[in-house]
């Protein structure tokens, strides 16, 4: 892991444990516009989110996606897509739930191909948070588990992912309570306590105390519906006092109020429970989310109904109907995700098959069919300038005859690598068959292409333990005249061969007039 990546991981921990402003300042020293590491753009986005500027965070995520593409990082790209989708969902922007789902699925498949652990971990967590925002709890846990396994044991990340796991189970329980599935809800509060206590035990690094206190609140909330409600109520109160003193946002703490009220009511203190909920309802953050608002309001209605409030009973009936509808909507979304994942997998498999069909199995470069298609495609823009090369290997038969076909195959792979190393990303190198290659160089004149060909000759000559060299013919043209240019390049290549090979020559009309 590079020093910059390590620094990004450290700043992310800072940004999420109450020191967002400091993390933002340090991240911005690495950035200039869209330039800079994608991981630092992510630090900036998370810090801006925790500082209450979600629109600026979305802009930061746009820059992060650009940086991730430039740096060829599928993990950071997936992280950017998933986090941006979550933000746009909260802000009511973007393409709604369908667009968010598609972005999350695209991100999930992208992250699966990441090899850098920091990018992979943050990508996994971003996808998990996106599914969590949509209340698709069944899809969340596996990503937190993967992030946990990939994170080093000596920093605060593992505690973060364990706490996130605990929080997810608490939210899941709140929603199950809403629809009357009490036993299932209690099974999730038990799992929440399990993960929260693990987070307490595994908190490490400079921010260990912050994560320990955060996890203690989750563990206390998880015990509200079990054997020691009085103890749970006291622990929730203490954890809230500590976290509020740390500057933890009201949004991050809002989930705890229904659990606090339940613990107080079950320990024989209904007046205190009602007072907690009245304050919680009055102070509900605008971005608390439907579930927290509904759970807070419903818990208050339960307490009022117990006092004989007819209005509370009517409100509960309406709220229960709404909760059941939201649960059904959630289940339909879950089915949609599975269908969309299947389609995405088919699309990826189709693309992989198409790429495989266009590749030469021996060398891994384009094959004859792919080259012919590229020529036809280029001819649709007849005025475009380009150059073609025909490359033939010298002394190749000698390798096969003296060292065998396995050595010949190894030589062809080495030659293809040497040729490709001298080309630009937009150039196309193909194996036409046997020991013959061809190259398309769009937008490049013949004089410049000849210098490229000369470097290719030197690169092949420098291959260790390989007696083969190459003869290269070069012809510049406009795309509409490509077939003739290929013939001219072929003639130039044979002229080099007749002169002993191991060289490159540009086709010129005067040289072939005879």
Molecular structure report:
This protein is an alpha+beta fold. It has three domains: 1-151, Serine Threonine Protein Phosphatase 5, Tetratricopeptide repeat; 166-324, Serine Threonine Protein Phosphatase 5, Tetratricopeptide repeat, CATH 1.25.40; 368-512, Reverse transcriptase/Diguanylate cyclase domain (Alpha-Beta Plaits, 2-Layer Sandwich). It has helices spanning 3-15, 20-28, 38-50, 54-70, 74-91, 96-112, 117-133, 141-150, 157-178, 182-202, 208-222, 229-245, 250-253, 256-266, 270-282, 290-306, 310-357, 368-379, 396-403, 405-421, 446-461, 482-498, and strands at residues 385-394, 428-433, 436-442, 469-478, 503-506. It has a five-stranded mixed beta sheet with strand order 2-3-1-4-5, sandwiched between helices. A hairpin with a 2-residue loop joins β2 and β3 (436-442). α9 packs parallel to α11 (208-222) and α10 packs antiparallel against α11 (208-222). The chain starts with a helix and ends in an 8-residue tail after the last strand. The mean pLDDT is 90.
């Amino acid at each position: 892991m590079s020093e910059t990546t390590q620094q990004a991981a450290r700043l992310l921990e800072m940004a999420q444990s109450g020191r967002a402003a400091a993390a933002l300042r340090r991240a911005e020293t690495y950035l200039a516009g869209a330039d800079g590491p994608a991981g630092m753009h992510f630090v900036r986005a998370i810090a801006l989110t925790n500082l209450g500027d979600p629109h600026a965070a979305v802009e930061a995520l746009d820059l992060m996606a650009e940086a991730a593409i430039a740096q060829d990082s599928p993990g950071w790209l997936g992280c950017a897509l998933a986090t941006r989708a979550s933000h746009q969902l909260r802000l009511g922007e973007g393409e709604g739930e369908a667009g968010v789902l598609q972005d999350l699925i695209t991100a999930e498949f992208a992250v699966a191909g990441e090899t850098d652990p920091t990018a992979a971990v943050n990508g996994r967590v971003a996808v998990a948070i996106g599914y969590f925002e949509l209340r698709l709890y069944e899809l969340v846990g596996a990503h937190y588990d993967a992030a946990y396994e990939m994170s080093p044991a000596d920093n605060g990340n593992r505690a973060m992912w364990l706490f996130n796991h605990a929080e997810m189970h608490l939210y899941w329980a709140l929603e199950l309570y809403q629809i009357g599935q009490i036993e299932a809800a209690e099974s999730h509060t038990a799992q929440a306590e399990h993960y929260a206590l693990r987070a307490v035990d595994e908190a490490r690094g400079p921010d260990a105390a912050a994560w320990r206190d955060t996890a203690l609140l989750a563990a206390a909330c998880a015990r509200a519906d079990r054997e020691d409600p009085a103890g749970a109520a006291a622990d929730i109160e203490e954890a809230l006092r500590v976290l509020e003193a740390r500057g933890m946002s009201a949004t991050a703490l809002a989930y705890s109020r229904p659990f606090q009220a339940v613990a107080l009511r079950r320990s024989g203190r209904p007046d205190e429970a009602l007072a907690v909920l009245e304050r919680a309802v009055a102070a509900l953050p605008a971005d608390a989310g439907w579930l927290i608002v509904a759970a807070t309001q419903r818990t208050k209605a339960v307490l009022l109904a117990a006092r004989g409030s007819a209005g509370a009973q009517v409100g509960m009936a309406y709220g229960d109907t709404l909760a059941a509808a939201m649960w059904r909507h959630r289940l339909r979304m879950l089915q949609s995700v599975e269908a969309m994942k299947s389609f995405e997998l088919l699309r990826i498999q189709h693309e992989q098959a198409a790429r495989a069909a266009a590749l030469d199995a021996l060398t891994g470069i384009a094959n004859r069919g792919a080259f012919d298609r590229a020529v036809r495609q280029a001819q649709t823009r007849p005025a475009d300038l380009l150059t073609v090369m025909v490359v033939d290997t010298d002394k190749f038969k000698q390798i096969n005859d003296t060292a065998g076909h396995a050595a010949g195959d190894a030589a062809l792979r080495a030659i293809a690598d040497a040729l490709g190393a001298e080309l630009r990303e937009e150039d196309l190198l193909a194996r036409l068959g046997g020991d013959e290659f061809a190259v398309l160089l769009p937008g490049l004149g013949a004089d410049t292409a000849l210098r490229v060909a000369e470097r290719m000759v030197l690169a092949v000559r420098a291959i260790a333990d390989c007696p083969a060299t190459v003869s290269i013919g070069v012809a510049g043209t406009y795309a509409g005249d490509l077939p003739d240019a290929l013939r001219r390049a072929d003639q130039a290549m044979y002229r080099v061969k007749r002169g002993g090979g191991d060289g490159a020559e540009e086709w010129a009309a005067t040289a072939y007039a005879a």
